[in-house]
Amino acid sequence: MLGHHYTHSFLETAIASVNAGCNLELSYGMRNNVFMHIPQALAMGNITLQMLRDRVRPLFYTRMRLGEFDPPDMNPYSSLDLSVVQSPEHRNLSLEAAVKSFVLLKNVRGTLPLRARDLSSQHLAVVGPFADNPRVLFGDYAPVPEPQYIYTPRRGLEMLGANVSFTAGCREPRCWQYSRAELVRVVEAADVVLICLGTGIDVETEAKDRSDLSLPGHQLELLQDAVQ
């Protein structure tokens, strides 16, 4: 609120936030954060002790329901170790979630889904800055996965035995430099073309907004060239 000039100090922000019902502050790495001024606001009479109790109660209720105050032997997660991380059971569940979350907007002539049994007889072109760049596949606030567990579109298709040709067209999502000749060469020789475009955290994240929804750089040109 301070950055948007709704308030002029952390003290004003604390008063406005608590009165509005906010009971949790996210201020990573700040020792003198906004809610550190709550005692001063209380002493000044801008907020009441009952109001603070009302704000704190749901926080501790939630923590108690999560078992944070239970003895360790009552916590079912205390028996888990790193062997469960990336276990086959969890990876299969992640795969199922990914498959079920796909949104198919248009499927001309029933082109999709591609069938694994047909891939070996087809020549696939996988193109675009998101086709084989693991770094750009994850959004803001995403965890940092182990590289061996990251499957780019190119890597995934190659693991299925597909005959894959690849070119990024441009190195990164901003797509400032675009190699049209290389793209055309790869696409013209293919039976099926997969075009992998987007933005990624290089282009937009929290506090890095854009004024429009257009594809960045030469990505639209890359798409048009691939289709033509």
TrEMBL record:
Question: What's an example Gene Ontology biological process for this entry?
Answer: arabinan catabolic process
Glycoside hydrolase family 3 C-terminal domain segment(s): 103-226
- Which Pfam family would be a valid example here? Glyco_hydro_3_C
Q: Can the keyword Cell inner membrane be found in this entry's annotation? A: no
Which top-level group of life is the source organism from?
Answer: Eukaryota
Q: Gene3D superfamilies annotated for this entry?
A: Glycoside hydrolase family 3 C-terminal domain, Glycoside hydrolase, family 3, N-terminal domain
Q: What keywords does the record list, in alphabetical order?
A: Glycosidase, Hydrolase
- The answer, when asked if Hydrolase is one of the entry's keywords, is yes
Residue ranges spanning the membrane: these are: none
Q: Which GO terms describe its molecular function?
A: alpha-L-arabinofuranosidase activity; xylan 1,4-beta-xylosidase activity
Q: Which SUPFAM superfamilies match?
A: (Trans)glycosidases, Beta-D-glucan exohydrolase, C-terminal domain
What is the recorded name of this protein? XYL2 arabinofuranosidase
